[in-house]
Amino acid sequence: MNNNWIFQQKKRKHPECRVFFFHHAGGTAQIYKDWDLGLSEIVEPCFVQLPMRANRMGDEMPSSIEELAEAFIRDCEELFDLPCMFFGHSMGAKIAYEVSVQLSRKGNNPSALFVSACEAPCGSSEILPYASALQADEEVILDILRDYDHMLEEEVLEDRDFLEYYLPIVRKDFYLSDVYRKAPEEKLRCDVEVLAGIDDAHVILSECSLWKNYTEKECVIYELPGDHFYFESRENRRFVCERINEKAEALQKLPVEV
């Protein structure tokens, strides 16, 4: 299958479910490199690449997370033939949630949602609280990027050729993330697992707990050692993969609907 959304799909012989991974603002699907090695053989991971970057440089970014989720679902419909779970980090968590909501409206309820380093979408946190990322001065954007732990090295931020390519991407990503707001009116019918680094300066842990209002099922919150990119720790990454594996194994034990 040739699908620009799916940067990499690790095929399994007998998958029980597919897990779609959405990356953070300003990131790429490459951040999930080698995650498949920690996942069970019954889990078929699909690493999603958002428009404007890497192999999708010529693709336009939708004007909202709602539109992005709608396009993703439309273009990836054939991949929803198995039970699906969604994992999203930071802005990717908002996308994963919106995809879950829209799929639920179609009667295709996700099996689980994993939200990483992200407050619930009713929260007040913003990347740029006083100015839109689309109009903010370049130095404002660069200061924000410097403030995110381990996101980009200083020498990269001083490369003008790179910035000409990268700043439009990060401006649009920050904007979409900031304007996305959703009250918990449409509750998911799947478990939600929330993961956050206890030293993450960009996430309000108390607002992460509000994800419990977005599902009729169980919501569990894990506070892990580390900052915004807590899963750079091999131990933390192993923990996240184990949580996904456990959810997949639980699917095997569900009674078969006749």
Task: Report what the structure shows.
The protein is of the alpha/beta class and 258 residues long. The protein has a single domain, classed as Alpha/Beta hydrolase fold, catalytic domain (Rossmann fold), CATH 3.40.50.1820. The chain contains seven helices and seven strands. It has a seven-stranded mixed beta sheet. Helix 1 crosses helix 2. It is globular and about 55 Å long. The two termini are 30 Å apart. The model has no long low-confidence stretch (mean pLDDT 92).
Order of helices and strands: EEEHEHEHHHEHEH
The shape, in one word, is globular
Tell me, what is the CATH class?
Answer: Alpha Beta
Cα gyration radius (Å): 18 Å
* Number of helical segments with 4 or more residues: 7
* Average predicted confidence as pLDDT: 92
Sheet having the most strands: 7 strands, mixed
Number of strands: 7
Strand-pairing-aware structural class: alpha/beta
CATH-defined topology? Rossmann fold
Please indicate the percent range of residues in DSSP E strands (runs of 2 or more).
Answer: 15-25%
- What topology, given as strand order, has the largest sheet? 1-3-2-4-5-6-7
